[in-house]
Give the backbone structure.
Amino acid sequence: MMQALALICAYLVDRIWGDPRWIPHPVILMGHVITWLEKRIRALQLKEQQLKWAGLSFPLVLVGGSYLLVWTVLYGLEKIHPWLAWGMEVWLISTTIATKGLADAGMEIFRHLRNGNLEQSRLSLSMVVGRDTNTLDEPEISRGAVETVAENIVDAILSPLFYAAIGGAPLAMAYRAANTLDSMVGYKNEKYLYLGWASARFDDLVNFIPARMAAVLLVIAVWLKGHSASGCWRVIQRDARLHPSPNSGFTEAGMAGALGIQLGGLNYYHGVPSNRAKLGDPTRNIRAQDILETVMVMKLVSVLFLLILSIGRLGVDIL
């Protein structure tokens, strides 16, 4: 029962307070460790295949180290007082979830567009995407925001909750380490093709189950919100596999089908064009309101997922 309650409380902490900037976030420490480890490996001047083997050290050190560190902290606090350990577990799990942060980022872009402030909306979008934003119009800004919110439903919310339900704060933090690794070194470019392959593959693996659960819950959520559940499911089945990520395509394709819009297409990165597969059907232009609708669906999906996990966790605890 206490584990289920910790999960619910952690979610509420994130929804209410998010990640206050005055509190050091564990991801910042993870970033420093990743940078330090990369510098040490690069200094060895390894060849391509050697770099590939060295890439295994990232998930081993960071994911394994994060789990062990959090487990040790909680074990020590448990010896002092059980409630102290429980409170720390709630807070640590909340730091692995980003429901409020994701919603706030999307709504900030929405508000600037609603007020007709394209410059500010471009700047806000540039804070959460890697593409060039300085010349984007309202439909393209809205597309970027919808894609970002939809894509991050899994790795920013559902996956950390999933692993917290299974293994508490240690496993949730281990997941966050895996996801941070992917965001920093899991690129298929010349710099990280060999060094980051293990991190990218591991992130794909740990998101596999939550992403497919997200697809089912997304259909339910869009139906409850009055959008097209049939369109959501149809486009998931047809287009999800076209996404470069084996997991992110489920929620992006699903939102495109639910809203009757098309995501993906041409983006520019430092002036270099990049074409991504198109998801959904262009039945109309994307507009700012679609950002709001995506944020609302994202919140509902997270609540439905939390409810399922809490009931499941409670059942396990009773047994």
Remarks:
- Residues 2-318 form one domain.
- The CA atoms of residues 113 and 121 lie 6 Å apart.
